[in-house]
Design a protein that fits this description.
heterodimer, A: mainly beta, 6-stranded antiparallel beta sheet, 3-stranded antiparallel beta sheet, B: alpha+beta, Gyrase A, domain 2, 7 helices, 20% helix
Chain lengths: 130, 344
């Protein structure tokens, strides 16, 4: 997917919405989040078929030091979980951002209107880092 | 000390396989001087200090009258580390950074009746721990063999690359190694020299994150987790850290004498299923009933599985347990401690 096609959440997930009707959202971890999440030991993905609600904590990624929760920015049904990632946690941070997708959700409601575009997200990261 | 210099996992592995360097200058370094120095520490520390020979180091606890732990400390027989700055008569006490002010105040509050002086040398000094299978050979090269000349829990003055230091064959990683105490003014040069000399064999600086995973694999207690002023040494599994022998009269002794017979809780090691780690505060259940709480937990980089220390009801310390891990039940079993023992 072209990188200019993705949006971001304030909790450091990226989202890509397909052109289907209803659209399918692919949710991943931003490069900024990956940078911060070193020493990963475990990734728990949501079950396929499960119904999730925007803002819900649906899975978690665990490093040696701490657990980070991952939120879905959209409401709908989980149609896929990227199980292959679970076996490559040590090299996750070396992958391009678009390869680190976690799960897909077929939207049951409206498209989210609170997502950030790339420029707004970059500003959020820079402000947060200062 | 940062949480990590590069990566907790890499720093952890380097310490287990080669050598790790730890800037532990934040720890408190105190000295006790005066005719009553040994009698004074005999009164305040749970282990006997009066028979501590020169060059010997003893692990002990400082307790309150209720037997709760105020800190776990290392006591250095005189002449201790203070010898490096010319004080040959002083006993040394190394305390946890977070407890330093509390301990200095506690010592001063109990000085009455003892002819002693309590000095805090923390800011004038520094400590670098060199730990791992290659630690002793590295320090030996810089000290003409002074590290390997020491047995465990022994210390001596030495010269490291021209700098006066105090070598202590102690550590907090489960590996062989030394802790090097030096005047603050020479700390930077010492650190740079050790970094340069350990790099060829895979040595790296190690931060607080790996310091925690290393000590947890070795099942060493961390104050504020396995130890606190509401946990007594027997509950924490530190029987070796208390000498209740005839004639010993230290603060907390009476309570501890009865606590030894019937501890209310017991420290256990837990092995968890899967790869998710329990963390401090995770409830421990037996047949759905709460029987304890996790005091420290992590994913063990060496064992490649989650491990945890917990305080549990002594009646429930064998057999299958369940952990309430953020709302999900996870099976755990008690395992012998330490989780990791270095190969010899």
């Amino acid at each position: 997917m072209p990188s200019n096609d993705i949006c971001f959440t304030e909790t450091h997930e990226w989202v890509h919405l397909s052109d289907e009707t209803p659209p399918v959202a692919t949710v991943g971890l931003s490069a900024f989040a990956l940078e911060a999440l070193t020493d990963l030991v475990h990734l728990e993905l949501p079950e396929v078929g499960r119904t999730v609600e925007a803002g819900e904590n649906v899975c978690e990624v665990e490093s040696v030091k701490a657990v980070s929760e991952i939120y879905t920015p959209v409401t709908g049904e989980v149609t896929a979980a990227h199980e292959a990632l679970v076996d490559q946690l040590e090299t996750l941070t070396e992958l391009p951002q678009e390869d680190v997708w976690l799960f897909r959700v077929r939207l049951s409601g409206d498209r989210p209107d609170t997502l950030l575009d790339t420029a707004a997200y970059q500003k959020l990261c820079e402000d947060g880092a200062n | 000390m940062p949480v990590q210099y590069t990566s907790i996992l890499e720093e952890h592995r380097a310490t287990r396989e080669a050598v790790g360097l730890f800037d532990i200058s934040h720890m408190g370094r105190l000295s006790i001087t005066g005719p009553d120095a040994t009698a004074f520490l005999d009164r305040l520390v749970t282990r006997r200090v009066s028979d501590l020979p020169a060059g010997h180091i003893r692990y002990g606890l400082v307790c309150n009258p209720a037997g709760g732990v105020l800190d776990d400390v290392l006591v250095y027989g005189a002449p201790g580390p203070a010898e490096v700055w010319g004080d040959h008569a002083a006993l040394g006490v190394v305390v946890n950074a977070g407890n330093r002010d509390k301990l200095v105040a506690w010592f001063k509050d109990h000085q009455s009746g003892f002819d002693v002086r309590v000095d805090d040398h923390t800011h004038a000094t520094a400590t670098v721990a060199v730990q791992g299978p290659r630690a002793i050979e590295t320090v030996d090269r810089l000290t003409r063999g002074a590290a390997s000349a020491l047995q465990n829990y022994r210390g001596a003055r030495a010269t490291l690359d021209g700098r006066p230091v105090y070598l202590s064959r102690t550590g907090y990683t489960g590996e062989d190694g030394v802790e090097i105490i030096c005047p603050a003014a020479s700390a930077d040069g010492l650190w740079q020299r050790l970094v340069a000399d350990t790099a060829p064999c895979g040595g790296v600086p190690v931060g607080l994150g790996a310091r925690d995973t290393l000590r947890l694999e070795a099942a060493m207690p961390l104050y504020g987790h396995e130890l606190s002023d509401t946990i007594n040494p027997f509950e924490a599994g530190l029987h070796f850290g208390v000498t209740l022998a005839e004639g010993r009269d230290f603060i907390g002794r009476d309570v501890l004498a009865s606590a030894q017979r019937s501890p209310a809780r017991r420290r256990v090691g837990l092995a968890l299923e899967g790869r998710r780690a329990a963390r401090e505060g995770t409830p421990v259940l037996r047949d759905g009933q709460p029987v304890g709480v996790v005091t420290s937990g992590t994913f063990s980089p060496t064992l490649q599985r989650p491990i945890a220390l917990a305080l549990v009801d002594p009646a429930a310390d064998t057999g299958p347990l369940t952990l309430d891990l953020r709302g999900k039940a996870l099976s755990a079993t008690t395992v012998p401690l330490p989780f990791y023992r270095r190969p010899r």
